[in-house]
Design goal:
Region (Disordered): 141-202, 309-347
Shape: elongated
Distance between the termini: 24 Å
Domain Phytocyanin: 37-141, 205-308
Number of strands: 17
Helix content: 10-25%
GO cellular component, one term: plasma membrane
Protein name: Phytocyanin domain-containing protein
Mean pLDDT: 75
Largest sheet: 5 strands, mixed
Biased composition (Low complexity): 155-201
CATH topology of the domain at 38-140: Immunoglobulin-like
CATH class of the domain at 38-140: Mainly Beta
Strand content: 15-25%
CATH architecture of the domain at 38-140: Sandwich
């Protein structure tokens, strides 16, 4: 073998080694690109006192995996709640005078998880923590494919208010959430949610009130049904479907005054058999309550604004008019999409891969 041939073979071998190294690096890039996840605490319920279900936030956390770099979004009304990132001792005792990592009063609060292990959060206002407004999670050092078990939380006392139905928490799937930063209405009677102005014709829609939660005493109080209605457009001809157990709830349409005072002495109409279907026949404000003792004052009430015929189709929560399948919960009750970083990460990895491969081709030539 002459000198020129030996030099060519040596150079070719060097190029093969470099090419193999680059290919291995490109193959490993997708595995190392970890997308951050934003978790809206409590889903549609938000960050409130979970009336009737002190373990609501433990249930919510049990279906999720938390990793360093993820964000927790606490939706609440400023001045009514706050969120403290605390030690376990402060969390267990619901005592803000014990070690606290940070306290946020501005709403909504977004907290980035910076440390692996157990993380604890609670509301420091009044007895909110003792009534169940607290969250304990386990954070892994990297994104996991299955939920991490939540640390054992100290039991919170029952509120003793009625016997509300516990809401099953669905695994996170893409859906339209309550807008981050939207204030949670106060306990005072709210004005009905104003629907967008009409623009194009559409067919009548059927709405399952509360989606998978149904018509019950909501764990989040009155804000639950206000939040449910906030992203929907109601028009004359639409149908409201109230899913409830006959004998445990009912639904009455009442005046605004009776709605505010939770009075049912002179209802416009009343249905006692579930599920109840109510067709919206007139534009304007409509008010609905449950007349069972204490249910309305605990939040089982709905106020909506109905537009005339020819409103734009709602973006979520609506079904074609039909009898609902009570065994299949509506998908609109799920929590918001929690992977905003995936697209950006995939795009950057793909672009880098193309650039490297282009360099390889040019190098081999």
């Amino acid at each position: 073998m002459n000198t020129a041939t030996a030099a060519c073979v040596k150079m070719l071998g060097f190029k093969v080694v470099v090419l193999a190294t680059i290919i291995m690096g490109v193959a490993l890039l997708p595995a190392s690109a970890v997308a951050q996840t934003s978790h809206v605490v409590g889903g549609n319920m938000g960050w409130v006192i979970p009336l009737g279900d002190a373990g609501a936030y433990a249930t919510w956390a049990s279906t999720r995996a938390f990793a360093v770099g993820d964000k927790l979004v606490f939706n609440y009304a400023a001045g009514q709640h706050d969120v403290a990132h605390s030690s376990k001792a402060a969390y267990d005792a619901c005592n803000a005078s014990l070690p606290i990592i940070s306290t946020t009063m501005a709403a909504p609060a977004t907290i980035t998880l910076t440390a692996a292990g157990e993380n604890y959060f609670f509301c420091t206002i009044g007895r909110h923590c003792a009534l169940g407004q607290k969250l304990a999670i386990n954070v892994s050092s990297a994104s996991a494919s299955s939920p991490s078990p939540s640390p054992t939380a100290a039991p919170a006392p029952e509120t003793g208010a009625g016997s509300p139905t516990q809401v099953p928490v669905a695994a996170p799937t893409p859906a339209l959430p309550r807008k981050v930063g939207a204030p949670v209405p106060s306990a005072d009677s709210p004005s009905p949610v104003t629907a967008p102005a009409p623009s194009t014709d559409r067919a009548p829609m059927s709405y399952i009130v509360g989606d998978s939660m149904g018509w019950t005493v909501p764990p989040g109080g009155e804000a639950a049904y206000t939040t449910w209605a906030s992203d929907k457009t109601f028009s004359v001809g639409d149908v409201l479907v109230f899913n409830f157990t006959t004998g445990r709830h009912d639904v009455a349409e009442v005046t605004k005054t009776e709605y505010g005072s939770c009075s049912s002495s002179n209802p416009i109409s009343k249905q006692t058999t579930g599920p109840a279907r109510i067709t919206l026949t007139a534009p304007g404000e409509h008010f609905y309550i449950c007349t069972f003792n204490g249910h309305c004052s605990l939040g089982q009430k709905l106020a909506i604004n109905v537009t005339g015929a020819g409103s734009p189709a709602p973006t979520s929560g609506a079904l074609p008019p039909s009898t609902p399948n009570l065994n299949s919960p509506s998908p609109a009750g799920s929590t918001p999409s929690e992977n905003p970083g995936n697209f950006a990460s995939s795009t950057s990895v793909s672009g880098l891969s193309v650039a490297i491969l282009s360099i390889i081709v040019a190098y081999m030539i």
